[in-house]
Amino acid sequence: MTDPAGTDARASGVTVAVSGAPPDDWPALLAAGFGAEYTHSRHWTLAAVEAWPGCRPVWLTARLAGKLVGGVAALSRPVGSSYLKGLLKIERLESSLDGTTGGPLIRSDLAPALQDRIFLDLTTAFLERRHSGPAACTLALNRTLDVRFGSLLAQSGRWQRHDAPTAVVDLGGGIENVAAKRLNRTKRNERNRGLRQGAEVFATTNQDLVRSYYPLYLAATGHWGTTPVPLEFLCRLLEDPHERCFFVCVRLAGKVIGGHLNLHYGDRVFAWNGVTDPLYARTHYPATLVFWGDMVEACRRGARWFDLGGSGGVQSLTGFKKYLGAEIEERGFYTHESRSMAGLRTLRSFFGRFPGGGPAQRWHDRSEARPVRRGTA
After folding, report:
1. CB 3.0–4.6 Å: which of 77, 102, 145, 347 could bond 55 by disulfide?
2. For residues 70 and 36, is the Cβ–Cβ distance under 8 A?
3. Using one digit for the tens of pLDDT, what is the confidence trace for 351-365?
4. Which residues of 99-114 are buried (b: 16+ CB within 10 A; e: fewer)?
5. Which CATH architecture best describes the domain 3-163+332-351?
6. How does pLDDT run across 219-233, given as a tens digit for each residue?
């Protein structure tokens, strides 16, 4: 069941509708879409809805003469902090989650002017779905989409752009070339030393290993001051029928000391959710091992690019990724907030921590890091 979103009859002949379920022809749009990535897939959005408390799907579709020519897969979910819980409903409408990118997906075989029209129609309809109270809309665009369409958002005057750089390794030439030409000598030595001392690294879809990893991840989010991704979401992603998600695990004597959940689409693998135990940072180098394992599996799958994600302004993490052979790739994060939401952000500076607030820090830079106690999550 759909209902109109925005203007039904547009000069271009494009009509936009909104639904709570993906259309049957969404996979065809994904295959033909400009800048398509894993977060545009149905599995990603449906897994989030099933696992994330209060999360509702929003599917915007643009059609021309009945043909699906563009769309946005988005999620509407409540956000809030302990001191606001039960007092105020805050909604976020977003085309991505937790450091990923997404945004409008438009067929690449259309004329540029028509692509622009569809992009503007979809982003206008996206804003119209914003909650009436304190609310924010966000669009996180990958490099391809940002270069192609970012200027349209800037010209509209309705969006605020934030730089959202990511670190990317060129996997051209395969894993042997990566080891010889991308990793610096220190990282190669750390990899070799960790493996000699008994650590193992491997790719898997075993959900039990993700469950063993999760307390470590929870401890890290407590340090970062961020809301953890639900365990159920991580496990559900590994059930992707096309096997586009995998978990790289670092284990020592049967104990999980680090891991990354990776998203694979087309020629790119994204190391999305991950952390390693700082207790072993200088003895077994699990951070180096897990990235190495990511790249080994990415090359095995035939990927050309390995995306290590952003660094949140943490210089030591940026440097760490540079030594793995990464280069910075610019992206755009666009926000549109209601006035009441902007007011709450002003209050944040007075009351302290608020969702999404607080300075980013690398867990391994914390001198008082202690081992994680298992079974306490």
Report:
1. 77
2. no
3. 344 444 444 455 665
4. bbbbbbbbbeebeeeb
5. 3-Layer(aba) Sandwich (3.40)
6. 999 988 888 999 999
